[in-house]
Amino acid sequence: MSEPKHPGEPRAGHELSDLSPRAIAIFGIVLAAAVVVCLFLAMWIFNFFAAREARQDVPPSPLSRREAPSAPLLQVFAPKDIAELRATEDKILDSYDWVNRQAGAVRIPIHRAMELLTERGLPVSPKESGTHDETVAARRTGRPSQPATGKRK
């Protein structure tokens, strides 16, 4: 009883007429060639636009350059640093030294400068000299000035 159940039914197996292996191989080769062509086209477009941008790019101004610091500028021990700063400032405020030797300008201790200022007073500008001599002298000596008795010119 090896007869088929249905007399018009074909034998079991695969369909031979739908796809041919030759057509599948040709499609695969064409697809691989298209991918390679697209890859080379994309690389050419990228290089073309990169070269175009490089030609149009203006170099930056030399004034816009900023140099990076050579090392991190960290304050390692703050109390020591502030003590050194105050010691340097105290030395400047409490010592005699030349500021400009050619011009004869010297630095004197601040306490001595305040004593001289209280003894001599502030310097008089040329605008204040003349009609205000009495009030300037009164400011220097600490004595009140006499009221003016004359008429204005």
How much of the polypeptide forms β-strand, as a percent range?
Answer: under 5%
What is the overall number of helices?
4
Main sheet properties: 2 strands, antiparallel
Question: Which structural category fits the helices and strands?
Answer: mainly alpha
Give the distance, in angstroms, between the N- and C-terminal Cα atoms. Answer: 154 Å
Which strand order spans the largest sheet, edge to edge or round the barrel? 1-2
Question: Would you report the number of β strands?
Answer: 2
Radius of gyration from the CA trace? 50 Å
SSE topology string: HHEEHH
Residue-averaged pLDDT: 80
Give the helix level as a range of percent: 40-55%
Dominant shape: rod-shaped
**Parts with pLDDT < 50 across at least 5 consecutive residues:** 147-153
Structural overview:
It is a single chain. This protein is mostly helical and 153 residues long. It is 47% helix and 5% strand. It has helices spanning 21-56, 78-93, 110-120, 133-141, and strands at residues 97-100, 105-107. The protein has a two-stranded antiparallel sheet with strand order 1-2. A hairpin with a 4-residue loop joins strand 1 (97-100) and strand 2 (105-107).
Summarize the structure.
This protein has 153 residues and is mainly alpha-helical. It has helices spanning 21-56, 78-93, 110-120, 133-141, and strands spanning 97-100, 105-107. The chain is rod-shaped and about 135 Å long.
